[in-house]
Amino acid sequence: MNGALTYAMELEKKGDIYGAMQICRGILRDNPQDGDAAVLFARLNLNHRVSSGVNMAMLERFLSVDASKQAEFKRWLIDV
After folding, report:
1. What is the per-residue pLDDT for 64?
2. Sequence spans of domains, the chain
3. Among 25, 75, 80, which Cα is nearest to 53's?
4. What's the CA gap between 66 and 36, in Å, rounded?
5. Residue 76: how many CB atoms within 10 A of its CB?
6. Number of Cα atoms under 13 Å in the Cβ half of residue 27
7. Which of 32, 42, 46, 64 has its CA 20 to 30 A from that of 22?
C-alpha cells in the first residue's frame, strides 16, 4: 500500500471524506489499475451518497437501462 493511499485512509478516519476522495482520484488518475484505491474510492463514494440522503433505490432506477425501472423513476420524480 502506498503512502498516498494510507493518508487517504487516515483522512477517512478523521471524517474528511472529500479529501480522501480527492487523493483516491489522484492515485487512480496515475494508476487506473490500483485495486486498493478503487475499492477505497468506491466505499467513500457510496458512504457519501448514503450520508447525503441520496435515495439509492431511485438512483438505481434512474441509471437502469430497463424501461420499466426508468418509468418507475419518472413516476416517483413526478410525485416528489
Report:
1. 83
2. 3-79
3. 80
4. 31
5. 14
6. 24
7. 64
The Cα–Cα gap between 50 and 31 comes to: 27
Residue 4 phi, psi (nearest 5): -65, -40
N residues, the chain: 80
Residue by residue, DSSP assigns 17-41 as: HHHHHHHHHHHHHH-TT-HHHHHHH
Quickly count: other Cβ atoms within 10 Å of residue 34's Cβ. 18
User: How big, in percent rounded to 5, are the helix, strand and coil portions of the chain?
Assistant: 80, 0, 20
- Nearest one of 47, 50, 58 to 21, comparing CA atoms: 47
37-67 tens-digit pLDDT = 999 999 888 877 766 676 767 878 887 888 9
